[in-house]
Specification:
48% of the residues lie in helices and 4% in strands. By secondary structure, the protein is mainly alpha-helical. It has one domain. Helix 1 packs antiparallel against helix 3.
Length: 140
Amino acid sequence: MDITNLPMFGMLKGRLNWVGQRQQVISQNIANADTPQYRARDIEEFDFKKALRAHAPKNANGGGMSMRVTHPMHITGGGGSSASAAATVDRRPYETAPDGNSVILEEQMVKMNEAAVQHSTMVGLYRKHLSMIKAVVRGR
């Protein structure tokens, strides 16, 4: 059995891929901080709902899991579509240099730090889930 087929590991892998792509875009922004007319870019936010739907088991009708209301106080689930998770988007700058460059190094460094924290969190979750599987296999 391949552990990457498990939904939790698949979602962690997807999030790690997203963080890696974001780090690459941010590093390109930093590398082009002095390039005239360069526009800072970012990627769309990671859509947890979309990732959850992609890894959800299919029901008898061939669709994804559906929620069921068993009590009048329950909230009904609503379906919605979302945009592509990894598309690169140009952002609207609020500050632009006289040469037309919209990269703000401080902002890019904050984004890079956020991406590093997210990466560290995902790796920690991956290790934790892997250790739980190892404990089950060993019988502890």
